[in-house]
Design a protein that fits this description.
Shape of chain C: globular
Distance between the termini of chain A: 49 Å
Number of strands of chain A: 2
Structural class of chain A: mainly alpha
Helix content of chain C: 25-40%
Largest sheet of chain C: 6 strands, mixed
Structural class of chain C: alpha/beta
Shape of chain A: globular
Chains: A mainly alpha (296), B mainly alpha (290), C alpha/beta (253)
Oligomer: heterotrimer
Number of domains of chain A: 1
Strand content of chain A: under 5%
Number of helices of chain C: 11
Largest sheet of chain A: 2 strands, antiparallel
Helix content of chain A: over 70%
Strand content of chain C: 15-25%
Number of helices of chain A: 10
Strand order of the largest sheet of chain C: 6-7-8-3-9-10
Low-confidence stretches of chain A: none
Low-confidence stretches of chain C: 244-253
Radius of gyration of chain C: 19 Å
Chain lengths: 296, 290, 253
C-alpha cells in the first residue's frame, strides 16, 4: 500500500498535462462550438517546435519557448482561417472532418521533416529523481505540476476578474450565441482559439519532457483531451480540468493497483481514456459536473 | 506487371471497404469512424482461424463477416443513444479501444508483432500463392460484394435508410422502425468490411495493428467523400482513382521511400479537405425538425 | 376515431399542454387554431408519438396509443404532414410516393429492386402524382418543387401511405395564394374519401370552408370547441387573438 503516494504523484503529473490540454479543447468546443480534432496534434507540433529550437538549434529554454509560442500563433491562425472558419456556419460536423484532415496533414509534415522515430525533450533540466516523503520525483515533473497550477490560477483570474473573462462566461452560458458573432466578438473568439492552441503546445512540451514524442502522438492526446472534457462536461472548463486530473488518476490507479492479484498490463493505460469516453457518453453525456439538460 | 496486379487486388479490397462505408455514411448519414475497427476484426479473425486452427477459406470468410457484424451491433446500439457529433467522437473512441485491444491482448493477437504466416486459401486445387490466381479470387469476392451492395442500394430498404437519414420523424410517420434500420445498416455494412479484412489478411499473409489506424479510416472516408456519399458509381470510381492512380502518380514523382507513407497520408488529407470545401454546404445537412 | 383525455405535457418547467381533452369522430374534419405557443404542434407531436405526454391518454381506433412507438401508430393508419414540410428533398418526387406506399407492405416483397411489386408500386405512385398534377415532375428531385407543390406532394404521400387520420400542421404555410386553393381542394377530396382530418391553421378563412368543427387552443388548453359559425362570432376568440388585458398576458407566455 505504500505505492499509493507514488501513484498519486504520478497521477498528478499525468493529470496536469491532461488538464492543460483539456482546458484548451474545452475553450474551443465549449465557447466556440468548434470540435478541433487537431488539438492533440497542436500539442505534438508545439513539442516539435520546441525540440527544433532547444535540442537541434541549442537555444535556451526561454528563447525556444518564445519561438514556439510565435510559431504556434501562426499555426493557430492558419488553422482557424483555412480549416475552420469557412465551414462553421454550415454544420458543427464539418470542422470535425476538416480538422481531421488537418491533423493528418500536420502528422505527415512532421514525419517528413523530423522522421517518425521517437524523440525526447528530456536531458537538461535534470532527470535525476529526488526522494521526498517516500516519493520519487524529478525536477521536471515538479515543474509540470507547478506550472499547470500556475496556469490554472492565471486562467481563473482572467475568467473571473477581467472583462474578457466576463464575455467568456457569458458565452459559456449560451454557446448558441457563438454561432452568430459580431465583428468585435470575432476578435475575442480568435484570441480564445489562439490561447487554447498555446495551452495545447505547452501541454505538448510538458509531455515531450515527461514521456517522449513522435508524430503519431497527436491522436491519443486528442482523444485524452476529449475524455477529460467529456468527463468534466462539455463547455465546462473547470470540469474539464478536474476531468483531466481524474483521467490521470484513473490511468495510474488502473495499472498500479492490484485487483485481487490481477493488475492491468501497462499497455492498456491509454485505452482507459477511450473506454471512459464511450461509457460516459452512454450513461452521462453531460459529464460528471454538468446538470443534465432535457433533450427535446 | 506484378505491381499492377498488386494494385488491382488492393482495389478489390478497397471497393468492398469503401462501398460498405458508403452504405452507413452515404445513405444512412451516420458518421461511423469505427468502420476500420470492424475491418480489423475481419482481418484478425481470418488470421487467427487460418493460422491457429487451420480453418478453410469459406469458414474464415464467414466467421470474419459474422464477427465484424456482431461488433457492429454494439456500434449500432451506441449510435442510437448519441447525437451526431457525440457519435463521431464515440465511434472514434470505440475504434481506439479496439485498436488498444489488438495491441495489448498479446496472447490472442501477438500485439504489435502481428500475425505472420497466414496461408493463401486452398480452393479448387489452385495455387493461390500465384498472385494472378489470387487476383481472380479477390475479383470474384469483390464482384459479388459490389453486386450485393448494388442490390441493397437500389432496394426498398435503402429508401427507408435514406428517408431516416434525411428526416427521421417523417420516416417514423411512414411506419419505419428507424432504430432497426440504423442498426441493420451497421450490421450488413460491417459484414462486408469483415470480408474485406479477410481478403486483406489472405493477401498480405501478415497483419499487424498498424494497418488499421485512424489514417486508414481517413483514407476510407476520403474515398467516399470524393466519390460523393450515397453515390454507388461515384464511390467505385473514386476507389479506383485514389487506390491506384494516386500511388502511381507518387511513384512518378520519385519520392523517397521513407517519406512515401506520410506523403500518401498528406495527399489523401489534402484531397479530403478540398472535396469537403467544395461540398461544404451539402455534406452534413442540418437535421430536419418538426 | 381519436380520443384525447387530459393530456399534459411540460418541458423544462414550462407547461405546454394542460389537460387537453377532445374527441374526433371518424370522417370528421376538425380545425385547430390558436396563438403561437399555444401547444398546437406539441399536441400533434403527442398524437404522432414524437413526444410522450406527462399525463393523460390518447386512444386511436380503439387502441391506447399513449406510449406506443411512433412508427407503430403510423402502421395503424395515423398520418402526419409537417409544419416545416416533410418531403424528402433528396429523393425524387416519385420516390417520395413510393417510399410511402412501401411503408405498409412487407419488406420481402419490395426488397428486390426489379420485382413486380416494385413496378406496380411505381405505377400506383405515378397515378397518385397525377391527382395533384405532379406527374410531369416525377423524376425531378423533390427539392426543385415550390413550397405549394411540396405541400401537395406531402399530403398525397400521406394518402398513398394509407393513412386514415391526417394530421395537417399548417398546410398553407409557405404556400402561394394561388396554390392554397389546390391544397383546400385536396383536403376536400380527403373528406370525400371519408378520411378523418385534423388541421392546424392560422388562416381562419381558409379552414372554415371545410371544417365540421374548430377547436381553439390557448396556453395549452382547449378553450373553444364548436362549429365554424359559432367560433367566428365568439367574443372569447377575439380576445384571444386580438384582445387586451388578461387574455393577452396569458397568451404571450
Amino acid at each position: 500500500m505504500d505505492i499509493i503516494p507514488q501513484l498519486l504523484v504520478n497521477s498528478l503529473i499525468a493529470g496536469s498535462i491532461y488538464a492543460i490540454a483539456g482546458s484548451g479543447l474545452s475553450m474551443t468546443y465549449g465557447l466556440l462550438r468548434i470540435l478541433n480534432f487537431a488539438h492533440g496534434h497542436f500539442m505534438m507540433v508545439g513539442a516539435y517546435f520546441f525540440y527544433l529550437t532547444s535540442v537541434e538549434q541549442g537555444l535556451n529554454y526561454p528563447a525556444a519557448g518564445a519561438f514556439t509560442a510565435l510559431a504556434m500563433l501562426v499555426v493557430a491562425v492558419l488553422s482557424l482561417k483555412i480549416f475552420i472558419m469557412p465551414f462553421r456556419r454550415y454544420s458543427t460536423m464539418l470542422p470535425f472532418v476538416t480538422t481531421l484532415a488537418l491533423s493528418a496533414i500536420l502528422e505527415a509534415l512532421v514525419s517528413i521533416v523530423f522522421g517518425v522515430n521517437v524523440k525526447s525533450l528530456g536531458s537538461g533540466l535534470g532527470m535525476t529523481s529526488y526522494e521526498f516523503l517516500g516519493v520519487f520525483i524529478t525536477p521536471i515533473q515538479l515543474i509540470i505540476i507547478v506550472s499547470s497550477l500556475v496556469l490554472m490560477t492565471v486562467l481563473a483570474f482572467v475568467v473571473h476578474a477581467t472583462s474578457v473573462g466576463r464575455y467568456i462566461r457569458a458565452l459559456a452560458e449560451n454557446s448558441y450565441a457563438a454561432e452568430s458573432l459580431s465583428i468585435s466578438q470575432m476578435k475575442v473568439s480568435f484570441w480564445i482559439f489562439t490561447i487554447a492552441s498555446l495551452f495545447a503546445a505547452f501541454a505538448g512540451i510538458l509531455a515531450g519532457f515527461e514521456t517522449n514524442m513522435q508524430p503519431t502522438m497527436g491522436n491519443a492526446y486528442t482523444i485524452k483531451a476529449f475524455a477529460a472534457m467529456i468527463l468534466g462536461g462539455l463547455g465546462n472548463i473547470w470540469g474539464t480540468i478536474a476531468g483531466g486530473y481524474i483521467l490521470g488518476l484513473l490511468e495510474n490507479l488502473s495499472i498500479g493497483l492490484d485487483f485481487w492479484g490481477y493488475s492491468l498490463p501497462a499497455g492498456y493505460k491509454d485505452a482507459f481514456a477511450f473506454v471512459i469516453i464511450v461509457v460516459v457518453l452512454l450513461f452521462k453525456p453531460q459529464g460528471l459536473f454538468n446538470r443534465a439538460s432535457r433533450q427535446a | 506487371m506484378d505491381y499492377i496486379i498488386h494494385l488491382l487486388i488492393l482495389i478489390c479490397i478497397y471497393l468492398i471497404l469503401a462501398q460498405s462505408f458508403n452504405l452507413i455514411f452515404g445513405l444512412g448519414g451516420l458518421f461511423n469512424l469505427a468502420h476500420v475497427a470492424v475491418y480489423a476484426i475481419g482481418a484478425y479473425t481470418t488470421a487467427i482461424l487460418a493460422t491457429e486452427y487451420n480453418f478453410g477459406f469459406y469458414a474464415c470468410l464467414i466467421f470474419s463477416a459474422l464477427l465484424a457484424g456482431l461488433l457492429a451491433l454494439m456500434i449500432g446500439e451506441i449510435s442510437l443513444r448519441l447525437s451526431h457529433d457525440y457519435f463521431a467522437i464515440g465511434s472514434l473512441a470505440f475504434s481506439a479501444v479496439v485498436s488498444a485491444l489488438l495491441i495489448n491482448w498479446k496472447s490472442l493477437t501477438r500485439g504489435v508483432l502481428g500475425i505472420p504466416g497466414i496461408p493463401r486459401p486452398e480452393l479448387f486445387n489452385l495455387d493461390f500463392n500465384n498472385i494472378r490466381n489470387f487476383l481472380w479470387l479477390a475479383a470474384l469476392v469483390a464482384l459479388f460484394s459490389q453486386a450485393a451492395l448494388y442490390v441493397i442500394f437500389r432496394s426498398s430498404y435503402a429508401r427507408s435508410l435514406r428517408a431516416q437519414a434525411e428526416f427521421e420523424l417523417a420516416a417514423l410517420a411512414l411506419n419505419r422502425d428507424t432504430r432497426l434500420i440504423k442498426v441493420f445498416s451497421f450490421f450488413i455494412a460491417s459484414c462486408f468490411a469483415g470480408v474485406a479484412g479477410s481478403l486483406f489478411a489472405y493477401y498480405l499473409n501478415y497483419i499487424d495493428p498498424s494497418s488499421f489506424s485512424l489514417g486508414e479510416m481517413v483514407s476510407i472516408l476520403t474515398i467516399v467523400v470524393v466519390g460523393r456519399p450515397g453515390s454507388f458509381a461515384g464511390v467505385m470510381i473514386s476507389t479506383l482513382i485514389l487506390t491506384a492512380v494516386l500511388p502511381e502518380g507518387l511513384r512518378f514523382m520519385k519520392i523517397d521511400a521513407s517519406i512515401l507513407g506520410p506523403m500518401r497520408q498528406m495527399l489523401h488529407a489534402v484531397i479530403l479537405f478540398i472535396v469537403v470545401y467544395w461540398n461544404r454546404a451539402r455534406l452534413f445537412p442540418v437535421e430536419r425538425v418538426v | 376515431m381519436l380520443l384525447a383525455e387530459n393530456l399534459e405535457f411540460s418541458i423544462n418547467g414550462l407547461q405546454i399542454l394542460n389537460r387537453v381533452t377532445f374527441k374526433v369522430r371518424s370522417g370528421e374534419t376538425v380545425g385547430i387554431i390558436g396563438p403561437n405557443g399555444s401547444g398546437k404542434t406539441t399536441l400533434f407531436n403527442c398524437i404522432s408519438g414524437f413526444n410522450i405526454p406527462n399525463a393523460g391518454k390518447i386512444v386511436f381506433k380503439g387502441q391506447d396509443i399513449t406510449e406506443m412507438p411512433a412508427f407503430k401508430r403510423a402502421a395503424l393508419g395515423l398520418g402526419r404532414v409537417f409544419q416545416n414540410l416533410g418531403v424528402f428533398r433528396e429523393m425524387t418526387v416519385l420516390e417520395n410516393i413510393v417510399v410511402a406506399i412501401e411503408g405498409r407492405q412487407p419488406l420481402a416483397g419490395t426488397f428486390w429492386p426489379w420485382s413486380r411489386r416494385n413496378r406496380e408500386n411505381q405505377k400506383q405512385a405515378l397515378s397518385y402524382l397525377k391527382e395533384v398534377g405532379l406527374a410531369g415532375r416525377a423524376g425531378d428531385k423533390a427539392s426543385s418543387l415550390s413550397g405549394g407543390q411540396m405541400r401537395l406532394l406531402e399530403i398525397i404521400r400521406t394518402l398513398a401511405f394509407g393513412a386514415d387520420l391526417f394530421l395537417l400542421d399548417e398546410p398553407t404555410a409557405g404556400v402561394s395564394p394561388k396554390m392554397k386553393d389546390d391544397v383546400a381542394h385536396l383536403i376536400i377530396r380527403l373528406q370525400r374519401m371519408q378520411k378523418t382530418v385534423l388541421v392546424i391553421e392560422h388562416d381562419i378563412n381558409f379552414i372554415q370552408k371545410f371544417c365540421d368543427r374548430i377547436m381553439v387552443l390557448d396556453v395549452g388548453r382547449v378553450v373553444l370547441d364548436d362549429t365554424p359559425e359559432n367560433i367566428r362570432n365568439n367574443e372569447l376568440l377575439h380576445e384571444i387573438y386580438f384582445g387586451a388585458g388578461k387574455e393577452q398576458e396569458n397568451s404571450s407566455r
